[in-house]
Design brief:
2 copies of one chain form a homodimer.
Chain A: E1 7-11, H1 15-27, E2 31-35, H2 38-48, E3 52-56, H3 64-72, E4 79-83, H4 88-97, E5 101-104, H5 109-124, E6 134-137, E7 140-143, E8 148-151, E9 154-156, H6 160-171, E10 177-178, H7 179-187, H8 195-209, E11 219-222, E12 226-229
Parallel strand pairs in A: 1-2, 1-3, 3-4, 4-5
Antiparallel strand pairs in A: 6-7, 7-8, 8-9, 10-12, 11-12
Helix pairs in contact in A: 2-3, 6-7, 6-8
Chain A binds a DNA duplex through residues 159-162, 194-197, 199-204, 206-207, 213-214, 221, 223-224.
Protein name (chains A, B): Response regulator
Organism (chains A, B): Methylomonas fluvii
InterPro entries (chains A, B): CheY-like_superfamily, OmpR/PhoB-type_DNA-bd, Sig_transdc_resp-reg_receiver, WalR-like, WH-like_DNA-bd_sf
DNA sequence: AAGAATTTTTACGACATTTTTACCCACCAA
DNA sequence: TTGGTGGGTAAAAATGTCGTAAAAATTCTT
């Protein structure tokens, strides 16, 4: 897949600031999606799976810290908090809830951009995992850096969901993952009641990756529990 | 493994601030090492290999941004910058050079601590796997984290109830558990009147785990009372 | 706005697990 | 002996879970 623009979700109730962020970020080659309220924002974050979340703490419908905690329940995406109030305790609460950075209004847009770059740098560079960037078992090879999957050297095309599912499984290779855990990581928190998707995509992955899909060597079913990627 | 204190190197030329940081951080259980100049700081960082670097930009001997770049040449350790100047361009330069955060003096110490926690959180992402609970008795191995059971290295497939039953037994290994206790933990409070299930599943477990199911080494019957998992 | 790729919905046969039912043994007391 | 108790194993029946194909709806590209 071609190098696509980073996706940012902005949760901000104040229309002028929202407009400002949207246009400014767009001109710097970010794909921006917006939400006015905390609830909307959570949905948007779950659906868009952004590379970064920008969150205003002063929302009308729910506490910003609750939004952060809720997102952290299923994702480690970078969160940058904006706030009009410079109360120190509030900063601490937001950061401890899982926010990665905190800017007090008014802030310079250049600084925001720099802090966005920092956040994206963090997310894209789990530097310790450099050696695990390419996952190989027998004939199966998953190149996480380039997002290329191959079997016996033949490149296999995977759809976004198929690929994400495979990534989740090999990230926890050897471990049995429950349906809910997988659904949460792949589809987001709102899809936790649909183990059916899982069976369908698991089947598709087996067709593409296993030499005998009816008797999988890697993508194992743990009936009544979930799935696991077998290693060793 | 003893939980060791995070190591922090502070590069700061102003003695009062340095003293303040040293004592304050020390009381929050950090191991603090100090340097007065950029050159000293680079050496200190290289020798101590800290979990975090705190850097004042206004050093006498070299530009703070150069210090950052130099560290980034060989390490991805978190760097938090402190600065008296709130010039935006300087912030941007420092962040783009590789700093992870930037605080303008005067700052609240609580906020600094919170931002330190954020930075350490980033650095130790893969530390979720700290809780490895693996029970091993002779050839039997129960990996609770991965939900995998093996005998002599051969994986054994257990159904949900079989697995739950085994977990209950090894959780209270050595103790005698009554039928009722086990039924309650495995099937839930409403099934307490069916010791028969227990015999069936206990038999299945023995078939799968014991080398001689008719004379079990681990899954022992306490006649008239219940069962127990024998250890030692 | 049309066409391709992908995701979601729908449907149904196959499979695995749990529960029920049945029969076995060993032991002890009447 | 006979009958009762506590326990073990092996099968059926019932239930719940999985896998696959294909159609419908959506999203992405052009």
């Amino acid at each position: 897949m071609a190098k696509t623009h980073p996706v940012i979700v902005v949760i901000e109730d104040d229309p002028p600031i929202r407009r400002f962020l949207r246009t400014s970020l767009a001109t710097h080659n970010f794909a921006v999606f917006e939400a006015e309220t905390g609830k909307q924002g959570l949905i948007e974050a779950g659906v868009r799976k952004p590379d970064l979340l920008i969150l205003d703490l002063g929302l009308p419908d729910m506490d910003g810290v609750e939004v952060i905690k809720s997102v952290r329940g299923w994702s480690a995406m970078p969160i940058i908090v904006l706030s009009a109030r410079s109360n120190e305790q509030q900063k601490i609460d937001a950061l401890d809830a899982g926010a990665d950075d905190y800017l007090t209004k008014p802030f310079g847009f250049g600084e925001l951009l720099a802090r966005i770059r920092v956040a994206l740098r963090h997310a894209s560079r789990p530097a310790e995992h450099t050696q695990d960037e390419v996952f190989i078992v027998d004939a199966l090879k998953v190149d996480l850096r380039n997002r290329v999957v191959s079997v016996d050297g033949n490149e296999i095309h995977l759809t976004p969901i198929q690929y994400r599912l495979l990534c989740v499984l090999i990230k926890h290779a050897g471990k049995v993952l429950t349906h809910q855990q997988i659904l949460k990581e792949v589809w987001g928190p709102s899809y936790q009641e649909n183990p059916h998707y899982l069976r369908i995509y698991m089947s598709q992955l087996r067709q593409k990756l296993e030499s005998d899909p009816t008797q999988p060597k890697y993508l194992l079913t743990e009936s009544g529990v979930g799935y696991r990627f077998k290693v060793g």
